[in-house]
Amino acid sequence: MSDHAPTRRYRRVVVKLSGEALQGSAPHGLDAATLARIAADLANAAAAGHEIAVVVGGGNFFRGIKGADSGIERARADSIGMLATVMNGLALEQAVEGQGRAARCLSAVPMPSVCESFSRRAALHHLDKGRVVIAAGGTGNPFFTTDTGAVLRAAELSADAVLKATQVDGVYTADPKRDSSATRYERLTHDEAIAKNLAVMDTAAFALARENKIPIIVFSIAEEGAIAGALAGTSRATLVAP
Ligand SMILES: Nc1ncnc2c1ncn2[C@@H]1O[C@H](COP(=O)(O)OP(=O)(O)OP(=O)(O)O)[C@@H](O)[C@H]1O
Ligand SMILES: O=c1ccn([C@@H]2O[C@H](COP(=O)(O)O)[C@@H](O)[C@H]2O)c(=O)[nH]1
């Protein structure tokens, strides 16, 4: 068992799911097989007794910062980005239901004809019923990311941890996709992640997690059973904790 093995069970968690993780090997958008695999992981974790809230990114469709670079004003570009996360949220809701587990997509950007709006009370109610909650729309505000949204939801819902499911198997000394000499941390503090400017999550997300003493487990979502492995502390991962 690795160093990030939980000393107590992570009963309620927020899984931060990268939008890019949903595109599989496609250049963008959604890959049905990848969606089904991740949905099965989420459904299995809920069936094992964990309360699962998911905050989904939108990078497989749109990132505000890129839109702004190509001339769309930033706040408007971020609105497009938030809509992208709702598209992912709806697809994930359907995929989790396809695994026989009830799911509810709640959007921080109200769109009542499409899905329920996010509220803490509604999210807690659905979690209590054993449903997988998918918190889409990030924080509902421009100039933020879904990483910050994930930590925000974890704080609001008194979650035991944020599970950052991404394309790399932990936090490295530098971006491992760009620097092959980067080495992986087994464990580090929020302070260290901020001071070293480790860009696996944005500083606002790390700072909010530090303030609320929320542990973050960074792990790869590439393989089946990844979420169960992160919950059990048996997978390769980095624990960011006080
Ligand atoms: N020090 C680092 N350690 C690990 N990964 C890093 C580091 N610096 C940058 N990264 C990069 O950060 C990425 C994690 O961000 P992720 O893919 O989860 O994006 P996101 O913006 O949260 O989601 P989306 O795909 O929806 O945009 C990794 O894929 C990795 O390439
Ligand atoms: O609180 C938020 C969260 C997200 N956005 C916008 O959405 C995209 C996609 O989110 P990722 O976290 O990058 O996957 C993001 O680039 C922002 O443009 C937002 O405005 N507010």
Automatic annotation (TrEMBL):
It holds the Pfam family AA_kinase. Its EC number is 2.7.4.22. It is found in: Cytoplasm. Keywords: ATP-binding, Cytoplasm, Kinase, Nucleotide-binding, Pyrimidine biosynthesis, Transferase. Belongs to the UMP kinase family. It comes from Methylocystis borbori. PANTHER family: URIDYLATE KINASE, URIDYLATE KINASE PUMPKIN, CHLOROPLASTIC. The gene is pyrH. InterPro entries: AceGlu_kinase-like_sf (IPR036393), Asp/Glu/Uridylate_kinase (IPR001048), Uridylate_kinase (IPR011817), Uridylate_kinase_bac (IPR015963). It catalyses: UMP + ATP = UDP + ADP. SUPFAM superfamilies: Carbamate kinase-like. Homohexamer. Catalyzes the reversible phosphorylation of UMP to UDP. UMP binds at G58, D78, T139, G140, N141, P142, F143, F144, T145, T146. Gene3D superfamilies: Acetylglutamate kinase-like (3.40.1160.10). Inhibited by UTP. Its main location: cytoplasm. Pathway: Pyrimidine metabolism; CTP biosynthesis via de novo pathway; UDP from UMP (UMPK route): step 1/1. Residues 12-220 form the Aspartate/glutamate/uridylate kinase domain. This is Uridylate kinase. GO terms for molecular function: UMP kinase activity. ATP binds at K16, L17, S18, G19, G59, R63, T166, Q167, Y172, D175. The keyword Kinase applies.
